[in-house]
UniProtKB/TrEMBL annotation:
The lineage of its organism: Bacteria, Bacillati, Mycoplasmatota, Mollicutes, Acholeplasmatales. Pfam families: DAO (PF01266), Fer2_BFD (PF04324). It comes from the Bacteria. This is NAD(P)/FAD-dependent oxidoreductase. InterPro entries: BFD-like_2Fe2S-bd_dom (IPR007419), BFD-like_2Fe2S-bd_dom_sf (IPR041854), FAD-dep_OxRdtase (IPR006076), FAD/NAD-bd_sf (IPR036188), G3P_Oxidase/Oxidoreductase (IPR052745). It comes from Paracholeplasma manati. Residues 3-354 form the FAD dependent oxidoreductase domain.
Amino acid sequence: MKDYIVIGSGIIGALITRTLSKYQVSVLVIDKENDISSHQTIANSAIIHSGHDPKPGSLKARLCVEGNAMYDTLEHELAIPLLRTGAYVVAHNNFEEQMLQELHQRAKQNGVLGTYFLSGDEARKVEPRLSETITKVLSLPSTKVTFPWEVSIHAISNAIKNGAEFKRNAHVISIKKVEDHFVLHLKDGTTLESKHVINAAGVMSDLIARMIEENPEFEIKPRKGEYFVLDRKAVGLFNHVIYPLPTKAGKGVLIVPQTHGNILLGPTSYEISDREDESTSREGMKYIKEHLKALSNQIPFDMIIRNFAGVRATSTYEDFYIQESKTYKGFYHVAGIDSPGLTAAPAIAKYLVEEVIRIDLPMKPDFDPIHQPIPLFHTLCDVQKQIEIQKHPKHGHLVCKCEKVTEQDIINAIHSPTGNDTIKGIKKRARAGAGLCQGGYCESEVLKIIARETKVKPNEVNYYAKNTPILVKETKTK
Ligand SMILES: Cc1cc2nc3c(=O)[nH]c(=O)nc-3n(C[C@H](O)[C@H](O)[C@H](O)COP(=O)(O)OP(=O)(O)OC[C@H]3O[C@@H](n4cnc5c(N)ncnc54)[C@H](O)[C@@H]3O)c2cc1C
């Protein structure tokens, strides 16, 4: 029996688990997938928004601004990348300039600091590729960019160091309240028991809610967002996040420099019925290209290396829904966490634990907030490289030439406490296959290393989940 089970290992579940691991309680975070953060948290714009856009007075506004500031601490504690880009919101005419003024007022009401205006020409001096039609810009210096799933993986690694546990392939299909605790029934026929449960299941959070309540106060209306990714060679073409003016559908199609040098273009925003439909479409891509014209007509579309889509957990509640269940004490919903959920995540975890659960237990005297990941070889200086290669000669074998990933980097990614044994899991941790060739050259090598390290046959190595092998059968015999 656990004190707390957290359903969902996205950024929300991951940071809640880490926050709970500060206290003298037992915590287990579970996920239906084979890896940490496989949905919204791996498919978003990666922006730590300033808080200029949410409705003043909402939880979204408060927790976005608080979360933005908390990332400065997480950067050091969890060793996560944080690119301090700042952002420009652009206007093209008198009408839009008036809307920009209103947005500025909203930003100030929300407590966003350091904002100022630039003329179109002043902005183009800093960002020369901005469209000539832009007349005015609202600058938001507190906007940053991170590497979202690394935040989750490092948060769960740190929580494990402090006594928490993680269980993957744990798909909750029903929940029962029995006496003073909850019994979670999993798809594989097993059960888990806990005194308290936290529903952090992203686009599935209303389905989890309906497992214990007839009429939850929120329903998820999933909204898809599609993107293009430009190769790392595009680094420096844009140095700020570039936003159009927001609309009811969201923050619009953006230009977003990424922590590893790539540039993201997108997203679209439209409601879908299948909440796990993460496919991309020709129409979506056309829409992005069309809308980017208002931001810049100098985007090198020949540098696109891939596209992807994520599904937002937008809810009918129209704000983050962070509340104890109306039916059962000890069951908490952290639901409807669409944008700016990545930004707000550290503040959401703190708010839940301190203001909703109001945990009244002693902290662990030996809680260690620091996570020290094994650095990737290419990030080391020459002296450190010499030392590491003596200890681990497999750093001498470069597997992914695009992202400079060595065989030892891949071994480390497999065997770390939150390691993974799938091709996609290695890409998430070591970036093998994330570069220009998208794994065309290194994927077969990564597969062989996973097979050897986990002692399975090559055709038993999965792409991302159970039963997703890449190789079907042997075609040649000796
Ligand atoms: C296109 C797009 C762009 C965005 N851009 C930004 C941005 O730039 N900045 C920003 O701040 N926010 C952004 N967001 C929002 C942000 O990504 C999300 O708010 C955040 O990732 C939510 O995390 P989560 O943990 O709630 O959900 P998820 O990451 O989806 O995690 C939920 C987890 O629950 C698991 N789960 C579901 N059902 C079950 C079950 N029955 N049993 C066990 N496990 C289950 C899932 O497998 C999943 O891993 C964007 C979102 C999208 C989709």
